[in-house]
Design brief:
With 399 residues, the protein is of the alpha+beta class. It contains 13 helices and 20 strands. Strand 19 and strand 20 form a beta hairpin.
Length: 399
């Protein structure tokens, strides 16, 4: 018997599989990976030549602990899957946790209140010396304490989705086809659904449309109903002037104003007022001052937020300088040489953080409409494959 990889095609001249995923970002690739592990054949298509969207432009921080409600459940269920696929697909992932730095008593109170709501050990309060050591600095000047978020993970955003795409494409039942754009949708002849592309028609028994903020290109009314807009971020990558090791992801007061687990506690309102009074320049750019260290030692730093249906590509140097200065303050004594700047864009919605909607039989939009797509990706994919794909494929086509 041949050991050569076989294609999921079942019909000459027709690309067919059990599952077709549109979009090779982390949400799409997670749906592909979970489908393969469920014993389904998979084709992934993407309009670009490689993934260059939100999945490669972020911090690589799976911010699990700071989620709440359904998002927390999805993040936690995806955590072991992240570690499993890192081992199998060969991408970098570490159980690093995250450190939240507190510089005021109000910030500490938010962390105390969150710690009291969680199971013992998940949010561990730290003293000033503990935090300084986590930041790779000796001085505790300006630090009152902080908290360690045990369950958070870190991955390398520049390499993760590419490695995962290679793994899917190498799978006997998987195929990843770039430079292939979805142009239209309908019923299939051999399978439930058909997708017309610039490279011909594809058919599948379940289609997942995982195109992030670009839902409006394909389904403008659905995007309008869900109030999807584009959130643009300014981010930087820097080299440290000396050997610096920061194992956890690092969050700050502005982070506590953006993640629901923090904003739900009673002290959050006082923190909002405090940051507005003491650091209005950060709130004016809707900053989340945070950073992570890549495997090569460089720091991913950011970020600001602005919202519009279409985002201009131009970066404001004043915004980058504000972020750079704020982060340098937390890494006291370490000079940070900026070597890259870029704009990230993700889908955002005031309606809900998730858009999961069937647009036709066996054709489902899946978009994370908040800045936590990487955090939720595997948990969300696992849920959708088990609740949508497997039942659709198991039932008769004319049911």
């Amino acid at each position: 018997m041949s050991n050569e990889k076989t294609s999921p095609q079942t019909q000459p001249g027709t690309n067919q599989a059990d599952v077709l995923v549109i979009g090779a970002g982390i949400v799409g690739m997670a749906h592909a990976a979970r489908s393969l592990d469920a014993g389904l054949s998979v084709i992934v298509i993407d309009r670009d030549h490689e993934a260059v969207g939100a999945s490669v432009r972020n911090f690589g921080h799976c911010c699990i602990t700071a989620q709440s409600g359904e998002l927390y459940d999805l993040a936690q269920s995806g955590r072991p899957l992240w570690l499993d696929y890192a081992e199998r697909a060969g991408f970098w992932a570490v159980e690093s946790g995250a450190v939240v730095v507190a510089t005021t008593e109000t910030e500490l109170q938010v962390l105390r209140e969150l710690s009291a709501r969680r199971v013992t050990g998940q949010v561990e309060m730290l003293n000033a010396q503990d935090v300084a050591e986590q930041l790779g600095r000796e001085s505790t000047e300006g630090i009152l304490g902080g908290a360690f978020l045990r369950d958070d993970l870190r991955v390398d955003p520049r390499t993760t989705v590419a490695k995962l795409a290679q793994w899917v494409d190498a799978h006997v039942a998987g195929s990843v086809q770039f430079n292939t754009s979805a142009l239209g949708f309908g019923a299939g002849k051999q399978r439930r659904a058909s997708v017309h592309t610039n490279r011909g028609s594809f058919e599948a028994d379940q289609v997942f449309i995982c195109v992030g903020h670009d839902v409006d290109y394909l389904f403008p009314q659905i995007a309008q109903d869900h109030q999807i807009t584009r959130c643009a971020l300014q981010m930087l990558r820097a080299e440290a002037s000396e050997d610096l090791e920061v194992k956890p992801a690092v969050l700050t007061a502005t982070s506590m104003l953006r993640y629901e687990a923090f904003t739900e506690v009673p002290a959050a309102q006082a923190l909002q007022a405090e940051v507005l009074a003491e650091h209005p320049e950060l709130l004016s750019i809707q900053a989340n001052v945070m950073f992570t260290q890549r495997p090569d030692g460089t720091l991913l730093m950011g970020d600001s937020h602005s919202y519009a249906a279409t985002q201009a590509p131009f970066l404001k140097e004043s915004t980058s300088e504000t972020l750079h200065s704020a982060i340098a303050g937390y890494l006291q004594g370490t000079e940070l040489k900026v070597i890259e700047r870029w704009q990230g864009i993700y889908a955002s919605s005031a309606v809900a953080p998730l858009l999961i909607r069937n647009v036709a039989d066996a054709i489902t939009i899946v978009s994370v409409t908040a800045g936590v797509g990487m955090t939720l990706s595997f948990g969300l994919a696992d849920k959708n494959v088990n609740e949508i794909a497997i039942p659709a494929i198991a039932s008769p086509i004319n049911a």
